Amino acid sequence: xxxxxxxxxxxxxxxxxxxxxxxxxxxxxxxxxxxxxxxxxxxxxxxxxxxxxxxxxxxxxxxxxxxxxxxxxxxxxxxxxxxxxxxxxxxxxxxxxxxxxxxxxxxxxxxxxxxxxxxxxxxxxxxxxxxxxxxxxxxxxxxxxxxxxxxxxxxxxxxxxxxxxxxxxxxxxxxxxxxxxxxxxxxxxxxxxxxxxxxxxxxxxxxxxx
Length: 210
Prior knowledge:
Blueprint: H1 3-8, E1 44-48, H2 55-70, E2 75-80, H3 84-93, E3 104-108, H4 113-117, H5 125-129, H6 131-144, E4 161-165, E5 171-176, H7 186-208
Parallel strand pairs: 1-2, 2-3
Antiparallel strand pairs: 1-4, 4-5
């Protein structure tokens, strides 16, 4: 990591045309890079991270892998807008093993087109630099040892967010970060998917008795 790379993360990013945030009940934006529904019809949690090196991105990824280990019937996708090389370096620094998490997928979107398709655009100075965010970053470092890591690529201005998509490709839950330290509640998304799965199972049982 060079000083220039670190400085670049503070520069205003290139404009990318942004779609509205998909809300509960609408089809998830489907692309070749991230297609819905999945061939195996598994429900999905999709998390769009802040830049690799951000302590909040690191903690969010920890939440995601932890939820994945407890929910093998849900597929989890973490989207990074840092480069492929920077993302791999970051994952290595986190001691992440893809083989240890078979239902976790990391997608690199350094052009930020996926972010834009899901309504996640450029944030504001207050979003990134608010006193609450700064204090949360300090607390995360002091309490859990998660501090800023080198930022090799990506932008600090990108908004993060998480979504729950059912097996048929319909968004069931959405949460867009209100501040840099807003890591969302991934387990809330998981609860929505598990509840729907239970309701579908009960409906099938009821229909089979008719």
